[in-house]
Design a protein that fits this description.
Length: 385
């Protein structure tokens, strides 16, 4: 059972030494007042097993107005109706309000980490919006001016290359004039790492140097990437509400149709939540997905799957597009599909009555935690060799 009807848990910040509630309130006031969100949140001191923290969350009336039932998909539109904030500040305010309305409390080591986290989420959302790639699951290519392919290891950053420049060149075609081949999973890793690296370059130069050194010697990807760079919350028993997303979240949508899920790359879809009710579309960046768009596309993968001349399962993307367009013209049919898809997914390997929605969300860890994980990863790599 999810926690849609529960009040927000918000975020917490550990009290620094010699600090008190008045000091924490003043610090938060300086951050939120320019964004216009100061009057929407409440703060309180909590004594937790890990120590004393200052918890921030939306006040109940504002929660009901801005995040009804933890629905963030319409949050930006609701914000524009009650504030004059625009542009990058509006995205930052959207992140703040979504975090203050979090259904499960998110803990931060200090205020600097919280502010960096908000900026990183904005970086990721903006980078994902600019990302345009060529979809390919069995091959990959990166701009050779920045990356070198090391057999058995992966793509490593060249000695004199800037990490932020290299990640940007690989994902944003304006830099090179061409699209590079990615799977959606690897693409999300590059976009997330870019968002983290951009913040580190500005505020934590020591961590940025650490990120660059690591990228020159090792390719941290898949499970290791998750362990080093990401946090995850929500479980099958206590899932995150279906319509709760924070800009910068990495989200997995499962293909609940077993036959078509056997086509390489169509087991499901990894996306970044951009904010304003939209999810990244790395293959057609000018057409980001709404949640409903994504559900219809994944549902109709079952119609596009076919066996090629080598008896390999492939996907007819044009047929999928045609099926989606046809379904969209029939409100009753579209609702039937959404009723089937807008359910929490089954466990991995199970294809029963579950839909496409994941019970968890992934987001960047604190920068100090990332630095510690990188150091541990380096030590482990040195001893294993």
């Amino acid at each position: 059972m999810d926690n849609v009807g529960s009040p927000p848990e918000g975020i917490s910040i550990s009290f620094p030494p010699e600090s008190d509630a008045h000091h924490m309130h003043d610090q938060v006031t300086q951050i939120l007042r320019p964004l216009g969100g100061l009057d929407w949140c409440m703060g309180e001191s909590l004594d937790l097993p890990q120590g004393r923290v200052w918890r921030l969350r939306l006040k109940e009336p504002h929660f009901e107005i801005l995040l009804p039932s933890h629905d963030t998909l319409g949050l930006r539109q609701r914000l524009t109706q009650i504030t004059n904030i625009s542009g990058n500040d509006l995205l930052m305010l959207e992140v703040w309000v979504a975090l203050l309305g979090a259904p499960v409390r998110i803990d931060f080591a200090d205020l600097d980490e919280l502010q960096a986290h908000v900026r990183i989420r904005c970086n990721i959302a903006r980078a994902a919006e600019k990302t345009a790639l060529a979809f390919k699951t069995d091959a990959a290519e990166r701009p050779s001016a920045f990356w070198q392919d090391q057999p058995g290891t992966g793509f490593l950053l060249k000695p004199e290359a800037s990490l932020t420049d290299a990640l940007t060149a690989a994902t944003q075609p304006e830099r090179t004039g061409r699209l590079y081949e990615f799977s959606c999973y690897r693409a999300t890793e590059y976009v997330i790492l870019l968002g983290i690296a951009q913040e580190a370059e500005c505020s934590r130069p020591g961590l940025y140097e650490q990120l660059e050194r690591t990228a020159r010697t090792r390719c941290i990807k898949s499970g290791s990437f998750h362990e080093v760079f990401l946090s995850e919350y929500g479980t099958a028993d206590v899932p995150i509400p279906m319509n709760y997303y924070v800009p910068g979240d990495r989200v997995w949508f499962k293909n609940p149709d077993e036959p078509s899920s056997n086509a390489s790359g169509y087991e499901g879809s990894w996306v970044i939540y951009l904010g304003d009710g939209c999810f990244s579309n790395f293959w057609k960046r000018d057409s980001p997905y709404t949640l409903q768009d994504k559900m219809l596309e994944i549902y109709h993968w079952r119609d596009g799957a076919y066996l090629d001349d080598q008896s390999m399962l492939q996907m007819n993307e044009k047929l999928v597009e045609d099926k989606v367009a046809s379904t969209q013209k029939s409100p009753d049919r579209a609702q039937q599909v959404l009723n089937r898809m807008m359910r929490y997914r089954d466990l991995m390997g199970v294809y029963s009555e579950g839909g496409s929605i994941d019970s968890s969300r992934e987001f960047p860890r604190d920068l100090s935690s990332i630095a510690a994980s990188l150091a541990k990863e380096t030590a482990h790599s040195s001893t294993s060799h």
